[in-house]
Design brief:
19 strands, 16 helices, 7-stranded mixed beta sheet, alpha/beta
Length: 469
């Protein structure tokens, strides 16, 4: 592609993140392809003349065949650049690589992809080579301590996923048969499921119209003599009013269990979410702000709770007496391999949060003036939200058509979770929750998997306007 093809519609970017030389090693290529997040490298000779391209998939296949055992170079793996892909090389008249055109419209935009780099790759390889691949090791200890510190907590107890961290938290607090736990009506099903699995009753409460989280007023009206705990969920990265909810819990002698799965890094009244509760839970599923693939954690400031969390996580075995069980526990342990990825993600957490914020601002710029589209209500200055998924609300009758219009353009949108009261599994706990029902029926998640380019943004805007104009 000669330089004279560059137009405002064909944004040429530096070729450096997408470039390697024929002499570069397979390992160097792997790391560079991970870091550029396209999985594509253009290979040149020492003079910069384009020889071909190598994909991450081709490098994976080469490793499976043992290519890494030999001094193989990227030049030996280079294939033709004629294949249509999300990248196009820009060449000068002599065939020298001078830039790259990113074609996001060809690649499309997934709702969520893990943001993985050479740092996670190196940590994972190191953890594997250490042979500490199960539920022990330096990465696991480091991840627990560092994530707890980010939450303003003294102790972290990592788990195999976020759902079991909620279950473990409530089991540690002794919640069980006949107890009630106040849960927002608009949240993922795991919140209610884990309450029910312990024999307790989820009390479904409508959300606040501004925060989309629990409010002190609605929580207080739901408290009964059987209430044992309140479970605020920081929905979509938006913090609940934790100072007030903490005071309410203290006044009524209730436990407080924060679900921070979608909001690590958010703050309220200057304090990190997770710092207000008896035990806070977080998830590290692949679509979360930081990921370990699967994984979760409980954090607390109470040393006795931390000890009990660890005991119940490991089958109920007393840590000071091997194979001695005083009560039945669970196998909810995270592996050192997962934690190695998590440590690298923690190193990059602020950058990952910042990228999601920038993605959201790009969506605001193209969608805010389309009739029928509304972004979440602005929060007051006491709240410092983060972006999990950027999201909007649209007329409920138009939502499916918008999803389909974007899908035709290879842009993946998702509806909000259904309100708990609307689903058969929770019918016996259902309450009238009009705000939750309305937000659930009108909400749309926008992709935060990677930065959308100008083509994708224009395509998304066109899809919304085609339905709502």
């Amino acid at each position: 592609m000669p330089d004279d093809l560059h137009t405002p519609e064909r944004d040429v970017v530096s070729h450096l993140p997408f470039h390697a030389t024929a002499k570069d090693t397979l390992w160097a290529g792997l790391e560079r392809a991970l870091d550029n997040r396209t999985g594509i490298l253009f290979i040149t000779d020492d003079a910069g003349i384009l020889l071909g391209q190598v994909t991450l998939d081709a490098m994976r296949a080469a490793i499976q065949k043992g290519a890494h055992l030999h001094a193989i170079t990227l030049g030996e793996l280079a294939a033709s650049t004629d294949t249509v892909s999300s990248l196009e090389p820009v060449l000068d008249p002599s065939g020298r690589l001078t830039g790259v055109v990113e074609r996001g419209d060809r690649r499309g935009l997934a709702i969520a992809e893990p943001n993985l780099s050479h740092a996670e790759f190196r940590n994972l390889l190191d953890a594997f080579l250490s042979t500490w691949i199960s539920s022990g090791g330096e990465y696991l200890r480091s991840f627990e301590e560092r994530f707890a510190n980010r939450c303003g907590a003294a102790y972290g107890v990592a788990t195999s996923n976020g759902t079991v961290s909620l279950h473990l938290a409530m089991a540690t607090l002794g919640i069980g048969e006949g107890d009630e736990v106040i849960v927002p009506d608009l949240t993922f099903a795991a919140c209610a499921n884990t309450v029910m699995q312990l024999g307790a009753r989820p009390v479904l409460v409508d959300i606040d119209p501004v925060t989309w989280c629990l409010s002190p007023d609605t929580v207080e009206r739901a408290i009964t003599p059987r209430t044992r705990a309140i479970m605020p969920v920081h929905l979509f990265g938006r913090p609940a009013p934790m100072t007030e909810i903490r005071a309410l819990a203290d006044a009524h002698g209730l436990f407080l269990i924060e679900d921070c799965a979608e909001a690590p890094g958010a703050r309220y009244d200057g304090r990190p979410i997770g710092a207000f509760s008896d035990i806070a839970s977080c998830s590290f599923f692949a679509n979360k702000i930081i990921t370990t693939g699967e994984g979760g954690i409980c954090v607390t400031n109470d040393p006795d709770m931390a000890q009990r969390l660890r005991m119940l996580r490991d089958h109920g075995m007393r840590p000071e007496r091997r194979y001695w069980f005083e009560e039945a526990g669970f196998n909810y342990r995270m592996t050192n391999l997962q934690a190695s990825i998590g440590c690298a993600q923690l190193d990059r957490m602020d950058a990952l949060i910042g990228e999601r914020r920038e993605i959201h601002q790009r969506y605001v710029a193209i969608l805010q003036n389309i009739p029928g589209v509304a972004f979440p209500p602005a929060m007051d200055t006491r709240s410092e939200p983060v972006i999990w998924f950027s999201c909007v609300t649209v007329p409920s009758e138009a939502r499916l058509a918008i999803i389909k219009a974007c899908a035709e353009r290879r842009i993946d949108l998702r509806p909000f979770v259904n309100s708990l009261s609307s689903m058969p599994a929770y019918r016996r706990f259902a309450r009238k929750c009009p705000i939750s029902g309305h937000v659930s029926r009108t909400g749309l998640h926008l992709p935060t998997s990677r930065m959308p380019d100008a083509r994708l943004l224009a395509s998304m805007e066109a899809a919304f306007r085609s339905v709502l104009a």
